[in-house]
From TrEMBL, chains A, B:
Protein name: Homeobox domain-containing protein
Domain named Homeobox: residues: 94-154
DNA-binding positions: 96-155
GO BP terms, alphabetized: pituitary gland development
Annotated family: Belongs to the ANF homeobox family.
Gene3D superfamilies noted in UniProt: Homeodomain-like
One Pfam entry name: Homeodomain
A GO molecular function held by the record: DNA-binding transcription repressor activity, RNA polymerase II-specific
Annotated organism of origin: Esox lucius (Northern pike)
Keywords (A to Z) from UniProt: Developmental protein, DNA-binding, Homeobox, Nucleus
InterPro entries found in the cross-reference section: HD (IPR001356), Hesx1 (IPR043402), Homeobox_CS (IPR017970), Homeodomain-like_sf (IPR009057)
Superkingdom of the source species: Eukaryota
Length: 176, 176
DNA sequence: TTCTAATCTAATAAC
DNA sequence: GTTATTAGATTAGT
């Protein structure tokens, strides 16, 4: 399990954490007057975070805008990054990946049944499944992609086992 | 441009073409009493189609259910597959891919602006963009995937040009 | 034709 | 084990 260290600085204050496209678009980067505070973030999937200022996170070449809930100061009276629980949650949401979908048994059953018959459903069938199963069409598409990968994997594994078995048979014969 | 040939047969009749998961799930395959008629289908992306009976298309290992609009007969009085315009459209919809999304200039502008800042937007930013731009979140995701591929392509091309230019420079020098 | 949206595979991350 | 994301290669629509 990897984790990244982020250096931070606070400059201004907002009522609630705000993460908006406006902020992303309105960003100006040219204010490097910083005192920084380390912040641990569990997000190994998005590369290395370089630093966080009052409303920005630099993430390698990439960048995110944020605003902080309250003004925070360290012992020297300098502003300090002190993420709240809700702030961290929101941050993780904005940085992170889609929450894992938990398919119900019934949904899986239907998807598997369709997969048996057609493992490459077109847009129409995907849409119909989505409506029927109360899922997004895109989740259906991803499910079929992953299901095909699984099938291929199991195929490869069974072939490997067959090769292994025939080698074993050969060796048995040699011992006779 | 490839195209597949499908052999077909009609057995029963319905008011309109019907493509349902119910049919896919309720399918029984064991009735191979067929006279077939070729049908051209433009769908090279989904593998080879083997045949169509009154309500099925066999597509390699895969399979789709269909029903035909009207009874059709050939000169011998045998049922024949005669797809109507609307039937073919529906068929293509069910077999085919998602209709190509046409992004507006304004949408592209915003997406490009965000891409400049963050080419790997997390689920939160994607959702926010989707809401803001009246697009599905997964279209946003695909757009960023394709945009990253384009960037990489142009990167490779400019590198190629630079190498080519320096070779050219070298050759010029040698001529002196 | 060129550009790019959509799809696929394979590998890998995350939970 | 299974869902989500990525890069990279293709296919195909405008």
């Amino acid at each position: 399990m990897a984790s990244s260290v982020v250096s931070c600085q606070i400059r201004r204050v907002e009522a609630r954490p705000v993460f908006t496209i406006d902020h992303i678009l309105g960003l100006d980067l040219n204010r490097p007057e910083l005192r920084t505070v380390p912040l641990k973030l569990y997000r190994p999937w998005a590369g290395k975070i370089l630093f966080v200022s009052n409303h920005t996170i630099l993430n390698g070449e990439h960048l995110l805008m944020i605003k902080q809930k309250e003004d925070a100061h360290d012992f020297n009276g300098k502003p300090q990054f002190r993420p709240t629980e809700s702030f961290s949650r929101t941050l993780n949401w904005y940085i992170g990946r889609r929450p894992r979908t938990a398919f119900s048994n019934e949904q899986i059953e239907v998807l598997e049944s369709v997969f048996l018959i057609n493992s490459y459903p077109g847009i129409g069938i995907r849409e119909e499944l989505a409506q029927r199963l109360l899922l997004d069409e895109d989740r259906i598409q991803i499910w079929f992609q992953n299901r095909r990968a699984k099938l291929k994997r199991s195929h490869r594994e069974s072939q490997f086992l067959m090769v292994k078995k025939s080698i074993g048979d050969l060796e048995e014969k040699e011992e006779e």
